[in-house]
Please model this.
Amino acid sequence: MTPQLLEQLPESNSHSPRDAAPAPRLAQIDRRGLLIGAGVVAAGAIGYPLVASAFAAESPVFLARNQRYDSSLERTIRDGLLATRVDLAALGGRRVLLKPNLVEPSRARPQMTTHPAVVVAAAEVFRRYGATVTVGEGPGHVRDTQMALYESSVGAALEDAGVEFADLNYEDVAWTHNAGRASPLAGFWLPQSVATADLIVSLPKLKTHHWVGMTAAMKNLYGVLPGIQYGWPKNVLHHAGIPQTVFDINASLPRTIAIVDGIICMEGDGPILGSAKAMGLIAIGAPVAVDATCARIIGLQPKKIEYLELGRRLGPIDERHIPQRGEAWRELASPFQIVEVPHLQRLRRKDAMLTS
Amino acid sequence: MKYLDYIVDALAREAAWRYQPRSEPASEPTALVALALAAYGRDADAERARAWLAAAQNADGSVGVRAADHTPGWPTPLALLAWTLHDSPKSLESPSASDSPDYADCCRRATQWMLATVGESSPRQEYTGHDTSLTGWPWVVGTHSWVEPTAMSLLALRAVGLGKHARAREAATLLQDRLLDRGGCNYGNTVVLDQQLLPHVQPTGLALLALSGKEPATPLVAAALDYLAAELGPMTTAASLAWGLLGLAAFDRWPDAADSWLSAAAARAKRRGASHEMALLALAGLKQRSPLVHLNRQIA
Model:
């Protein structure tokens, strides 16, 4: 159609696509990027130190054992957040985005995705402190997000609980610079629910991962990037280096914390085809410290997991700098089966003996 | 069908088409709506959608995800289909594919962009089952070839009369290669570390649609058809249901209860205000008369 024809259309129907672009939010996003980069300085700058600085010398991790999906998860999560210095009282009126792992849900394989009970319990905790809670996910392997919500049962649980869902694969986006720069990517497109969140809560399932060893809090945040910009799978990130982009995304997001669903986990050929492993765990804290602790629990060396080694720039992975709250990880350690390939076996802790 | 009327009416009433009610207009929903409205004889509204896509086309011929986006260009084949297939079912017996004077230049530039765009390939790899040396289309330039963009591109090449082009032939080979022994396909991986991955409905439907034509169904295609027939049901969500039914329709298979499934899915999609889902359901509701299905029959 020619420009002349466009002009002849009724005004209500004349959405010229070039005019339809949103007002740039670059300034806002850049500010957030700076806030992330500046860590605790940024938190102070907006007047509420929601979470302890990721750059602090110590980063506490809370572990709870004997957890069940039909038990009082809300209390466990609240206690864990308070124990890891999250200022819940400061969340009143703030936007909290909960990011579960719904990579490729299948009712036959519930160990693949974050259990709906954990998602709803976390939402309730933040809502009780006055936060505006949204659950958001951009499933990495499926274009039909409604299918992912149905197969994971998370959609029905959110509807019952009255919690809003944001489809991060298809939302409008804004650009933020890459604050990590471990990969060659200059920046990231972030969905508006991510870009405008005051706090992002990674809600992963604890799983082995057949390329990078383990997926938990940090890797789960791949799912905040929109498929319409990165593809299904988010192959742009793979080509730029999986460990590097895991780190870069974590470095570039607004403030993040993690609540790990380690109740029924996945071992073996994760993150899709592995077997269920009952652990009964909930782990809470900053993503880097939580992942380092989870790695130890499942029998891997954090420093051998490349994105965790990069993650040292965001927070500690050494055990001596991760104060334990709740249970001590050594009492909970139970090495996971991992695929018998060299790039994974080299990650194994030497003292980690398989018992199953 | 009543549900078809109300979703087509709803699509025709929209000023622009988007993934979510409050989001920006986007190319994929607009292209699917253009196809659906044209197929239902809503010519003026379909023309608005085609015009939107033309205005969104970049100088290099690609069509981005949204109007202001230069990359990625994966919606380009969908726009090409929208510009090319604009006959209602009444006139499908004498289709006029690629003869639209209004969009001839858009089609030419989009086709050139598509033919110049390749997914990254590599020698076959130790840990992956599919043939990584085959070239199809990526979601994003500079990355690997995947099932859905390759299937969309194959359909678009057929629509502009390039169904026998070397790229189209290789695309068909790639899609066959990505089908799983167990039936169906996923986004585009088959076996990783000796384990066969899981099939998904949406890419399976799209791949079958693209693979339909005069070639006899291979055992892998037959297995994919059986997978879809077993998987679709009343709770199948809109986009998966629509692509799944289109894939079955392309091989003259249609579940007896499909209309009731479509009706239920249409009600859900309308509540969400998702243009692309409603358009897909409308296209699926035409069964074998859907322009996407008819396209391949015409070639055959």
